[in-house]
Design goal:
- This protein has two domains: 88-309, Type I PLP-dependent aspartate aminotransferase-like (Major domain) (Aspartate Aminotransferase, domain 2, 3-Layer(aba) Sandwich), CATH 3.40.640.10; 327-412, Alpha-Beta Complex (Aspartate Aminotransferase, domain 1), CATH 3.90.1150.
- It is of the alpha/beta class.
- Helix 8 links the parallel strand 4 and strand 5 (231-238).
- Helix 2 packs across helix 4 (91-108) and helix 5 (124-141) runs parallel beside helix 6 (160-168).
- The two termini are 43 Å apart.
- It has helices at residues 3-11, 20-33, 66-73, 91-108, 124-141, 160-168, 186-194, 220-227, 245-248, 312-351, 373-378, 403-412, and strands at 116-121, 149-154, 171-175, 201-207, 231-238, 261-267, 279-284, 355-356, 363-367, 382-383, 392-396.
- It is built from twelve helices and eleven strands.
C-alpha cells in the first residue's frame, strides 16, 4: 500500500468495512437492547410493533434481515441522541445512530472526535430548515429580531431555503450566479450585500452540489459577508454532493476543517441509496440546544429536532450501508461513477453538445438547445422546469447507469 494511502486509512477510525455477519449481529444486539412490546410490561408508550395483522412478523427470513426486523420492531428515535439523555426504551438502536453521526462528522467531514451533534432527519429539506431554525434562534437570543436577520444563498440553491425563509419569517437574499460556471457572481453579490439596510446577522448557505447543476459554492462569499460587518453562521447544503464530493475531492473545502462552517446537511436516500425519508443533519456541539423545545417535557432529554418522532430503522439502514462498504469500498464505487461520467462528457464533446459538469461530481446538465427533447424524455432526463421554458436537461450517473446505457443515449443524439 502506498504511504499516502496508508496515512489516509489510518485517519478513518470509524468507517471500517465489516463482514455481513458482523453487521447483522450488531443490529440484532441493538434491537435486543430496545424494549420488546410483546414481552415487556410496557403501558405508557404511545407506540407498538408494526400491526401484525398487516405486516407479518413471523417469517423465518426476518432472522437474516436486520433492517426489515427493525421496521417490524418499530423503534422511535425521537430527540437527538448525541447529547444528554434520550428515551431509554430504544437505547440499543440509538447507539447505532450516535455511531453513524460520529462516523460522518469525523471520517467524511474532518471534524475532531466527539465534536459533532446531529440526527437522522426525514431528508435534506428538514435538515436545511433545522440549521436555519437553530441560527435564527441563536440570533434572537442575542437580542436581534427577525427583521434584522437575512438568509443568504445562491439562486441555484434548493427550494428548501425559500421554505425556511417563509417558515421562520426571515428575509431571503438569493445571489445571482454566472450562467457558465454556476459560481456566485461576486461583483453582483457585493452590490446586493451592500444594500442590506438594517440587517445585523446572516445565515449563509453554501452548496455542495446544487440540485440541477451539481455546482459547488466557493467559500469566498463568506469573506464578502464579513466585509459587510454582519454576524453570520455558515451552513453547507450537501444533500446531493455530501456522499460523493467529500470523497472524490480530497481537498474538499466545505468541511468542518473550515472553522467558519458550523453545520452540514447530507442525504442518505440519494447517493447512499438508503430508503427515502433519510436525511442527515450534522452540527458542531453547542448548537443543537438552540432548537430545544421545553414543552416536550414528557420526552426524556426533551426534543431538539424539527421532526420529533422518527424511525430508528432509517438510522440502521444508513449504518448498514456505510459498514458494508467501508471508506475505501465507498471511494472505489464513487470513482467508478466519476469515470462513467467522464466517459459521458467525452462523448458529448464529440457530439458538440454543450453541458455543465462540476469536477468530482456525477451530474451532467445539458443545454436544451443542443439536444432533441424527445431523446431526453425517452431516457428520463430531468428538465430545469416543467413550464415549457426549459433551458437545461439533467443527467445523474447513479449505480444503475452503466456504460451500455450511456452509449445507447449517445447513439440516439
Amino acid at each position: 500500500m502506498p504511504i499516502n494511502l496508508l496515512k489516509q486509512s489510518m485517519r478513518k477510525s470509524n468507517w471500517i468495512k465489516l463482514p455481513s455477519h458482523e453487521i447483522r449481529k450488531r443490529v440484532f444486539q441493538a434491537l435486543e437492547m430496545n424494549i420488546d412490546f410483546r414481552h415487556s410490561d410496557i403501558m405508557g408508550v404511545p407506540a407498538s410493533h408494526l400491526d401484525s395483522n398487516v405486516f407479518y412478523d413471523d417469517f423465518p427470513f426476518l432472522e437474516q434481515a436486520p433492517f426489515l426486523s427493525a421496521l417490524v420492531k418499530n423503534p422511535n428515535h425521537i430527540g437527538c441522541h448525541t447529547l444528554g439523555d434520550s428515551e431509554d426504551f430504544f437505547k440499543g438502536t440509538q447507539s447505532i445512530e450516535r455511531e453513524t453521526i460520529e462516523l460522518l462528522g469525523v471520517d467524511l467531514f474532518a471534524a475532531p472526535e466527539n465534536s459533532i451533534d446531529g440526527y437522522i432527519a426525514s431528508g435534506g429539506t428538514e435538515a436545511n430548515i433545522q440549521a436555519c431554525w437553530i441560527y435564527r434562534n441563536m440570533f434572537l437570543q442575542k437580542g436581534l429580531n427577525n427583521d434584522e436577520i437575512v438568509l443568504i444563498c445562491s439562486e441555484d440553491t434548493h427550494y428548501s431555503l425559500p421554505k425556511a425563509s417563509n417558515l421562520l419569517a426571515i428575509d431571503l437574499l438569493r445571489l445571482p450566479v454566472d450562467s457558465t460556471t454556476r459560481q456566485i457572481d461576486l461583483t453582483e453579490a457585493g452590490k446586493l450585500l451592500s444594500t442590506l439596510q438594517g440587517k445585523k446577522a446572516a445565515i449563509v448557505v453554501l452548496n455542495m452540489g446544487t440540485t440541477m447543476f451539481g455546482s459547488v459554492d466557493d467559500t469566498i462569499i463568506l469573506d464578502l459577508v464579513e466585509k459587510q460587518g454582519l454576524d453570520y453562521m455558515a451552513h453547507v447544503d450537501g444533500a446531493y454532493g455530501g456522499f460523493i464530493y467529500a470523497v472524490s475531492n480530497s481537498e474538499n473545502p466545505l468541511s468542518f476543517k473550515d472553522q467558519r462552517i458550523s453545520s452540514i446537511t447530507i442525504d442518505a436516500h440519494k447517493m447512499l441509496q438508503a430508503p427515502y425519508g433519510t436525511g442527515i443533519f450534522l452540527a458542531r456541539k453547542g448548537l443543537m440546544e438552540y432548537a430545544i423545545t421545553p414543552e416536550a417535557g414528557y420526552v426524556n432529554g426533551l426534543d431538539l429536532t424539527l421532526s420529533g418522532s422518527r424511525s430508528g430503522a432509517n438510522a440502521i439502514a444508513v449504518w448498514m450501508i456505510l459498514m458494508t462498504y467501508g471508506y475505501y469500498g465507498w471511494k472505489e464505487m464513487i470513482e467508478t461513477l466519476n469515470r462513467r461520467t467522464d466517459y459521458l462528457c467525452e462523448q458529448l464533446d464529440k457530439k458538440k453538445v454543450r453541458y455543465f459538469r462540476e469536477e468530482n461530481l456525477n451530474i451532467v446538465t445539458l443545454y436544451s438547445k443542443d439536444i432533441d427533447p424527445e431523446v431526453c424524455i425517452s431516457f428520463g432526463l430531468v428538465p430545469e422546469t416543467h413550464d415549457g421554458a426549459n433551458a437545461f436537461w439533467k443527467i445523474v450517473i447513479m449505480q444503475h447507469v452503466d456504460l451500455d446505457l450511456i452509449q445507447r443515449f449517445i447513439d440516439k443524439i
